[in-house]
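Q: A reviewer asked whether we had any structural model of the full assembly, not just the individual parts. We don't, so I'm hoping you can provide one. Inputs are below.
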Amino acid sequence: MTAGLTVTGLTVGCGTRALVDRVGLEVAPGEVVALLGPAGSGKSLLLRALAGLPPPGVWVEGAAALDGRALTGGGEAPENPGPGFVLIPERASAALVQHRSLADLFAEALAIGGHGTTIVPVLQQAASLLERMGMTGASRRLALHPSDLSDGALWRAALALALAAGPRLVLADAPADGLDPSVRAAMLDRLAVWARETGAALLIAGRPDAGLDVAACRVLHLEHGRLVPEPQPRPRPVAADAAPAGPPVLSVRDLAVSFPVGPTRMTVLEGAGFELAEGDTLALLGESGSGKSIFARALLRLVPASAGQVTWRGRDLLSCDDATMRGLRREMQMLFPDARSAFDPLRTIGDHIAESLAALRPDIPKAERSTFVTNVLRKVGLPSSVADCRIGALTAAEAARAALARALAPEPRLLVCDEPLSRLDGDDRAAFLDRLLELRRDEHLTLVYATQDADQALRVGRRVLVMMTGRPVELAPAGTLPRDAHHPYTRAMLAAARASGPFLDGDPVPAVLVRGGCGLRARCAKARPFCASSVPTLEPVGPGHRVSCHYWDLPDGHGDPG
Amino acid sequence: MSVASPDAPASLSPVRVAWRRFSSERPAAVGLLAVLGLLVASLLLPDDHHSPVVTPLVTAPLSLAAAFAAALMGILVASAIGVLAAGAGGWFERAATGLAGRLSILPLPLVAVAGAVAFGRDLPGLLIAIAAVVALPAVGPAHAVMRGLMRRELVTAAHAAGVPPRRILWRHLLPNAAARLAVAGWPALPRALVIECFAGFLGFGAVGGAGTLGTVMGNAAAHGDPVMLASAAAVLGGLLLALHSIGRGLLATVAEEERP
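A: Here is a predicted structure for the entire assembly that you could use as a starting point for your response.
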């Protein structure tokens, strides 16, 4: 009898078409295997077939066995897949019954796993599993319903619940999808540690850029329903040139943004600043809620700043009137995270670009605008026919390029990008970034690029400004940051991108929830009581390198949160 | 990179996409056909004031027209208040939406009748009163529609592209709001129909010799004609069912994530 999961010649099809074609794989007890593939490659279908839950109208052939016992033996999938394995679906909310409390859900799962139904041991076991998945205050949260949980907590609960019955095989479809890379990496690491300790086989599926290899012993690649050898890495164009000379064209000092909430104001960004020379590039790196998006928008006065100074070519953007600012927008443009939602669905792409030209380039005669529209679409790699399409007719990749065309149409000098790859995946993501960097180099654009992916930040920016809870915590040249990051937050983000530890525990804390002191103290291994009383300031630690941490020079693991 | 096929549904004009979505809702299509059938029947049938079958069918279009006029006025007023409140923000937004919300919990048919007493017992006076009361519950949805649109990324992107605010309002916000406001305001039509019939039952809104469904029911009740009363009530019920089915179809024309 072979231990673990054994899959032989598994084929899943619909009608006469095979969607998953003769897949064979093995996952030994305690082994973690990542199954990577682009959208539509058949990953989810494969997992569902293994779990005996193929979609209606889909047939399954081939054999799959867990510890020698058949999971599917050809023909129709078994009605009752039987105990011993669990499928974690793509959305965490789908794994949890919404109208029942976590305690109820765990009681049921633990009873299935033979852990009894006595309430106190069940609650203790549930809290232990939640803590194992990194949930803080687990015993207090057992009374909550899934709808009361944040996305991060929801995923922790879904993973812990899946492990409650003590399965020998866990099939996880895009686990922790949608979470920050740093949080996802820590969560997957915990899941992998659990699998190795308990001897369970763990098969996790996801996109190639989802960071699943952080936890995996082996990586398999699935394309068009077939297992294929590891794809060759594509050549990347050089991102940053040599350091541009000349005085700064964009200067930001102590920028702050706050919003009125009742009688008080809620501060979401403060103390942010940098300087950029013509043609220079800066990456804003941070988790969700770190303030990088607000920062990017405040630069272009798309959200009102409450304090600070933004100077573009000697002009203070925060003090000029609205008409002057509209005129200056010719020189500074922005890319938004979701290109689709940045376009009016009732108007064509050509209308949008022509509208931008009419507003910002009155020197171009109306009769010549269509030529400009065609040229700028070609420049970003789109055919001219896209000008007549509405945004709903375009794919996500085409929409992202259309947004880039709209931004480049008035021939700006500064491009601010707010996570422009967030709706793309796989090859589309890489191709768009390549084109963006080529255009930046060709047009000698000054670039500010906000992202939550450290790998992207290092590739795009000549310097990286790391944001956390609405404050900058580290500013360093991209060349030195990978080997000489000082802030624990920066190191955790780099670790997540490199698929190696140490990771930060817990979920990102939004700036509005930080009540004095360092916003990382609840998650930081170096935290000491002093961190709660004083906000650290950016201090120089090397040439062009500044860090905001009281104990950046303390070795890891020497903290005392008190 | 290939561009999506021009034959793909997404590349159709927004109006054709909306019609496809509407017609895919079978109850909505049936409801629309029923209302159109009623209008055609009223034109073809003889004006027989004593037939319990013909009379409600002939008078129903007048009730529907009166309700439509009142609902349209009400939706326009509610939309104007909603747009102004969303644009102005601050105390005006809170006061306008708060007041409309509080007033809309009043018994609206009775308020409309009281209003008709003030504006005049004839049809125009009644319509003004009905428009005023059906506008109240529509202010909240209209405000929410505009608020939601103003927060959309397309508005920020238009600002970033240098488009002046007035042009953003006329070229992007209002055209996108129109369909949503129609969906959000559609319940005002059956509501106005019910109020008009209730008022007609009490003797309001009659125009010369022509009656509405409400006045037909009122006369039938006064003269002890249960067959006519039941027949008119059945036509009213069918009409309300058809209108609500059409409203469901209108809701389907707006993408799920954009519904008011």
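A: Points you may want to mention in the reply: Chain B touches chain A through 26 residues (CB under 8 Å). Chain B has one domain: 14-43+50-258.
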